[in-house]
Every structure is written in structure tokens, then in C-alpha cells.
Write a structure and sequence with these properties.
four-stranded mixed β-sheet, Peroxidase, domain 1, alpha+beta
């Protein structure tokens, strides 16, 4: 399972890197980044869109048509629209979330910064998000771009991922570690 996830991340990173290259060549990286940020927001707000993108049962042509119509209505850049079409044609929409994260990370990296993904059990306040960004910038020595998501299964705390480093300070993570330690010592 971990190997499949790693393979998926590699594929997502390759697609994202190619899109960054194309957007840089066309001089529209910021606009493409905004398109993808908007798309991420749309997916967060729409169960129907998430289902369309993630289900293998949807036909390739239906997925492509729906995404192209959405991109046109949203006023996405031509590069973004064509890219979404390529993902649909290649049956890669299931990794769209990974592509979006990899695109953000690659864009930030090329600008000399660091991308950090933060999953929390509850929404962070603006002050908490700002302080977390400052703390991560101090630790990494570069500008940090935060991508914050909510994962109620964490129960409390957060999981921070910067590059290949993951810091799990969630209640769920702590309970999992406690359970493994108790099992190792024969207490369970």
C-alpha cells in the first residue's frame, strides 16, 4: 500500500512538474496557480465534483467534458484547461489532489520557498496559521507556503508535512503510537 502511494506521488509530481514547465514557458505561472487553487476550492465545496473526479465508474469522455465546461465557465487559462483534459484522457483524475499539492510544492520550490501541508482536526485561526507559518519558516530557513486542510479523524492536534518530513502531533497519532507500544510490551 505504501508503495502504491509512493508511485502515485511520483506520477503526480511528474504531471505537476510538466505543468509548471509549460506555464513558465508561456509566462502564466501565477495565473495557472490561481486556476488550480480555484479548482481545489471548487472540489472542497462540491461533493458532485469530487465524486466525478475520483470515481473510476465515470466515463472518460464524461469526465473530460465536465471538467472542460467547468474550466471554461471559470475562465481558466488555456494551459490549465488542456492539462485537465490530458488528465481525463489518461485516466489520471484520481490523482488530481496529489497533482494539485505537487504543483504548489514545485512552484514554491522553484521560487526558493518551501511548501508545507498541514492537516488539523479543527480549522486554524488566522493568527494560528500565521504563527505556524513563521515557525516553519524559521525551522526550514525559507519562505513557507501553507496548505491547510481539515481531517476530523485526527481528533485533535495536527500533522505537518514538509517535503519528505512528516510530523504527526495529532491525538489519533499519539493513540496509535501508545497502542503499538502497549502491544509491544504485551499489555494488550
Amino acid at each position: 500500500m505504501a508503495s502504491h502511494r509512493a508511485d502515485t506521488n511520483i506520477v503526480a509530481a511528474r504531471y505537476a512538474g510538466t505543468l509548471v514547465d509549460l506555464a513558465l514557458e508561456a509566462g502564466c505561472l501565477d495565473k495557472v496557480a490561481q486556476d488550480l487553487s480555484d479548482l481545489e476550492g471548487m472540489m472542497a465545496d462540491s461533493d458532485a465534483l469530487r465524486h466525478l473526479v475520483r470515481t473510476p465508474l465515470a466515463g472518460r469522455a464524461d469526465q473530460r467534458a465536465a471538467l472542460l465546461a467547468l474550466a471554461e465557465k471559470a475562465g481558466f487559462q488555456t494551459i490549465t484547461t488542456h492539462f485537465l483534459g490530458v488528465l481525463a484522457d489518461n485516466r489520471r483524475l484520481a490523482i488530481l489532489d496529489g497533482v494539485l499539492h505537487a504543483f504548489q510544492a514545485e512552484t514554491t520550490r522553484r521560487r526558493g520557498g518551501v511548501a508545507a501541508r498541514v492537516a488539523t482536526a479543527f480549522p486554524l485561526t488566522a493568527t494560528q496559521e500565521k504563527n505556524l507559518g513563521k515557525a516553519l519558516a524559521k525551522k526550514t530557513g525559507g519562505d513557507v507556503t501553507l496548505s491547510v486542510s481539515i481531517d476530523e479523524a485526527l481528533l485533535g492536534g495536527m500533522v505537518v508535512t514538509v517535503g519528505s518530513l512528516m510530523i504527526d502531533d495529532s491525538v489519533r497519532g499519539k493513540l496509535d503510537r501508545l497502542g503499538r507500544e502497549m502491544a509491544r510490551q504485551g499489555a494488550v
